[in-house]
Structure formats: C-alpha cells, structure tokens
Design brief:
- The structure is a single chain.
- This protein is an alpha/beta fold.
- Strands 8-11-12-13-14 form a 5-stranded mixed beta sheet, with helices on both faces. It has a 3-stranded antiparallel beta sheet with strand order 5-7-6. A two-stranded parallel ribbon has the order 1-4.
- The longest helix is centred in the middle third of the chain and has 28 residues.
- The chain is globular.
- The relative contact order is 0.08.
Length: 559
C-alpha cells in the first residue's frame, strides 16, 4: 500500500535518524520473522525481541506495534532493504547491506533509487508536484555549488520537489548568499526572515484559506503553523545530511555546517550525475519498481567498471599486483581491504598526536563549541571529542565505537549494542558513555543501557570494570540511579556497578590537570578515582552527598 504524502517540500526518510542503526534491526526481523505476515501480532513480537537486544535504545512499550512500524516501514522499506508484502523478506540489497564489509556503496545505490512519486509514495492533492529523486538532486546541488550550507539545504534545497526546477533553486541560493553579504542584520535574524518568506510562499494557499492547524499542535495560528513547518524542514535537512553522509561521497564541516564532495570521490559523483537518469521510473508498476529497488547491482556506479577499480587500487597501493583473471567482486573486496587498512593507519596517526598532547587546544576548543551550540551534530562530535580526551588523559588502549569515514573523520555515533568508548588498562577496564540529552530524557534514554553496556563489557573481558558517564549537564534521576547501582548487587549487571556521572565542564578540568601535570597520568590514578567513588557511595547518606564528593574529587583527581 502506497503512503500518501502531503508535504510541499522534499520528503526525506527520517527513521532511523542514523541509517546504520537499521542494519541490526532488519537482520533481527529477517532471522525471526521471514515468511510471516507483517501485522499487529508480528510487530508486537518483533518489539519484544528487540527490547532484549543490546543494540536497542528505547522502550517501545507504549504502542509496540506502532514502534515496530515506525522502525521498519520507513527507511528500511522505502529504500528497498526489506519487503513486507505479502510476507516479510529481505531483498538482495538488504542481504548485501548486512554482509558488506563497507556499507557506503550499498547505501549509495539505494539512495540514488529513492524517488517520488513511486508505488511506495504517492503525493496527495495537497502536496507539491513531486517528480524527483531527492538524494540524486541534492548530491547534484552540492556538486554544482561546491559547498552547500545546512541552512541553504533546509530553506531552498528542500524545495527541489521537481528536478526540472533545479536551476531555479540554484539561483535562489546564489541570491541568498549575495543578500547575506549586503545585509546589516545579524545572520540569525537574516536567516529567520529568509526562511519565513520562503515558507509563506510555499504555503500561501493554506495561509490564504486559514488552514493552519497541524498534527503537532492544536493552536491554529499562522505563526505557529509556519514555526512547525520550519521545524519539520530542519528535521528533513538533518536526515538528508545523515543519509548522504552514509554514502561516503560527502564531507561535512561540523563547524561551518556545510557539505561538499570529497575530493577523492569527485570522479564517482561526476559519473553518477552524468549517467543516472533524473526521471522517476516504474511509477505505476509496483512489481517492476520493487525488482529494481531491491536489485543490489543497480544503478551502475563507477566502481562497477573493472578499469576504474584497477585504477583506484593502484591509487591506494601502487605496488599491488593484480592477476588478469581477477573478477570485479574480488577487486571490490581488495579495494575495501585497502581502504580499511588506510583508515586504521590514519586513526593510529591521530592517536599518536593526541597522546603527545598536540591536540589539547583543539579538543578543549571543540568542547567549548559544543557547549555554545556552535557545531553541527553535537552528539557525534561530543562522542568523538570525549574519545580524544580519554586518549590524551592517561595510558591505556582507548577505542571509540563510533563509525569513522575512510579518512578517519567521525561519521556516526556508536550503535546501541556497545558502550560509546571502551578503555583497556590491562588489569581493569573502563566504559565511557556520552550524551547530549538533558532533563528526564537523559535518564529515560541512558539510565538502563549504560549499566547494561558495562555488564556486557565485564562479561566479555572478565576484568574489573567501571563506567564514566559524561554529559553537558547531569540529571538528578541519573545521579540517583547510578548511586543506587553502586550499592545494589544485581547479577544481571554483573554485581555492583560503579558508574560515575560527570558534567562536561568537570571532564574538561580533568583534561586540563592532565595537560598541566609534569608527568603522564597512569592507569592506577584512573582506578583510584573510581574506587574512591565506590567507597564514598558506601558511606554517604544520600545520592547528592556522594555526587558532590565525587565531583570534588574529579576537580582535583591528580592531587
């Protein structure tokens, strides 16, 4: 059954927020429910299984069937990784996504095929006149302009509902850039009025008729209506960037909030823009569309050409010897191995610089930018920067479980089946969890998974282990929860759990102390800090007393 789209701007899949997170979920669905009907019964059963998986963050308790549909019926289905009719079945593209060493090319093919209209997505009478492959045209927009800012994508790029309007959208962005240079207004104000003007034009018919109620709010004022549409545009632009980022073709400047084509991928993008049709296909033929969408070898890319693959392999390793009889599949495997090896070398080079304190100023500056909300995707950058901080802080083997791109840059946050960062100090271990969440949401999202990840780490390593929890601010519910776990012997969590929550400003002070010290802090000082927390928790009369003492200790952890 086709989804009716009412949107007047580009419709972009937004669930899951990070594309890599769908991989373990469609794998779980396929292994347990393949061949069964996708109905309320299987949806509830799927959520019951999912809640027990380490990679799942959330509850799904309120309406498990809805939660299941929200996870599977959106991106996994829309991008052709799984079929839900007549029964549940992974497509060839879905199988390839699960098994591939590097997922970038798999995501790229599917994003290039996503189109509106299609047998899956039919615009309603209220919607824009859609005739577009959204990701293909946004990729073209980035290539054409050289650099595309987040706000430009949000305000103008999302108006590319018909590829034949491409040149008009480019002109709008160029005018926006000129007007920005001419204005005396601060950028925030300038951007706000530019977006409101565009929204008033996009939704002129609704505003004229007084049709200003939204699903999100019962307050039917024009101002509230436009604010809601602006918020939706932000979410679509954010999702578009995250999904394009997963292709490995696009670089993002987290400080400048801008997109560009990676220099090393320019030829790949040029091939795509010159060879892949901009016209939606099989709009009224569902069977042909699904065959096309699920085909893991379509559309053809530059990397499907043997000569191109040989050239890329030579660029990665000029001394590589290739036999004449080698297949394209074998060449792709060889290229993947070379790229993975290069990435690991780049990361190791970064680690060496960090351990020598060469990145101290950059690390502290990045934390300040996160605190001032002056950076794109703060959750990812916080996780990456805490990893850099832990690497610099002391000895030990510090591993980030976030995903790095081929050039050693942070690409997406850690999947939910493990701690964000794991630290091996030989005789003991440490997990580090990081979040931008605040308030009660912090406890709801992080409370249980943090202790579960620590328990998993203890079981896998067989070592004494602790956990450090870092966030811009620490919610009282988390303080109470982690205090309680210090004193509760829960076998499910591997006994008592020493989890210490610290606000970001305190963690920054610990880095400063390490930088200023006349020696390199050693693992025993790390262990001493967590053992202090254990001791204080056993003698404190309340969670607040324990927390205050631990924070005070952290502020002078090398004394």
């Amino acid at each position: 059954m086709a989804k009716s789209i009412d949107s007047k701007v580009l419709f972009i899949t937004t669930s899951p927020r990070t594309p890599e997170k769908m991989i373990p979920e469609i794998d779980l669905l396929s292994k347990n429910f393949e061949g069964k009907k996708w109905n309320t019964e299987t949806q509830i059963a799927f959520m019951e299984l999912l809640r027990n998986e380490n990679f799942f963050n959330g509850s799904g308790n309120n309406d498990p069937a809805f939660s299941a549909r929200d996870r599977i019926n959106r991106a996994p289905k829309a991008l052709g990784f799984i079929l839900l009719e007549p029964t549940i079945k992974l497509t060839e593209s879905g199988k390839t996504l699960i098994s591939a060493k590097r997922k970038e090319e798999v995501f790229l093919r599917q994003l290039l095929k996503f189109q509106i209209p299609s047998p899956y997505h039919t615009p309603s009478e209220k919607a824009a006149d859609f005739y577009v492959k959204p990701y293909l045209e946004i990729l073209r927009l980035i290539y054409t302009l050289g650099i595309l800012k987040f706000d430009e994508l949000m305000i103008f790029g999302l108006q590319l509902t018909d590829y034949r309007e491409f040149d008009n959208i480019v002109k709008k962005i160029e005018k926006f850039r000129i007007d920005r240079e001419k204005t005396s207004k601060k950028y925030r104000e300038f951007k706000y009025y530019a977006q409101m003007n565009e929204l008033q034009e996009i939704y002129s018919s609704e505003l004229a008729k007084g049709e200003t109620s939204t699903r999100e709010s019962n307050i039917a004022t024009a101002k509230k209506f436009l604010q809601t549409k602006a918020s939706n545009m932000h979410d679509y632009a954010d999702a578009c960037i995250r999904y394009l980022r997963a292709t490995g073709l696009v670089s993002i400047s987290h400080i400048g909030r801008s997109l560009s084509i990676l220099t090393e991928k320019k030829k790949d993008v040029e091939f795509i823009l010159n060879n892949i049709s901009r016209e939606p296909v099989f709009i009224d033929d569902k069977a042909k569309y699904l065959d096309y969408l699920g085909n893991s070898e379509l559309p053809k890319l530059l990397t499907d050409n043997k000569d191109s693959l040989l050239q890329k392999i030579k660029e990665e390793n000029p001394t590589e010897q290739i036999q004449e009889s080698v297949t394209i599949h074998e060449l792709k495997e060889k290229l993947d191995d070379l790229i993975i090896t290069k990435r690991e070398k780049l990361i190791q080079s970064q680690i060496a610089e960090i351990k020598d304190y060469k990145k101290y100023d950059d690390i502290q500056t990045t934390f300040t930018q996160i605190e001032e909300n002056d950076i794109y995707d703060p959750s990812l950058i916080l996780e990456w920067n805490v990893w850099r901080g832990m690497t610099m802080l002391d000895g030990g083997n510090i591993k980030a479980n976030l995903k790095f791109d081929d050039f050693g840059n942070p690409m997406s946050t850690a999947q939910g089946n493990m701690a964000d960062i794991v630290c091996d100090y030989e005789t003991f271990g440490l997990t580090v969890e990081v979040t931008m969440a605040s308030g009660q949401k912090q406890y709801e999202m992080e409370g249980e998974p943090v202790s579960r990840h620590l328990a998993k780490f203890k079981k896998e390593t067989g070592k004494e282990a602790y956990c450090l929890f870092v966030a811009p601010t620490i919610n009282e519910s988390c303080i109470a929860h982690f205090y309680g776990l210090h004193n509760l012997n829960i076998s499910y969590y591997g006994g008592k759990s020493v989890i210490v929550p610290l606000p970001l400003n305190v963690f920054k002070k610990m880095l400063e102390d390490s930088f200023k010290a006349s020696y390199i802090p050693n693992p025993e000082q790390v262990k001493s800090f967590f053992e202090y927390s254990r001791t204080v928790a056993s003698t404190s009369h309340s969670e607040q007393e324990w927390y205050n003492k631990v924070v005070e200790k952290a502020l002078n952890w090398l004394a």
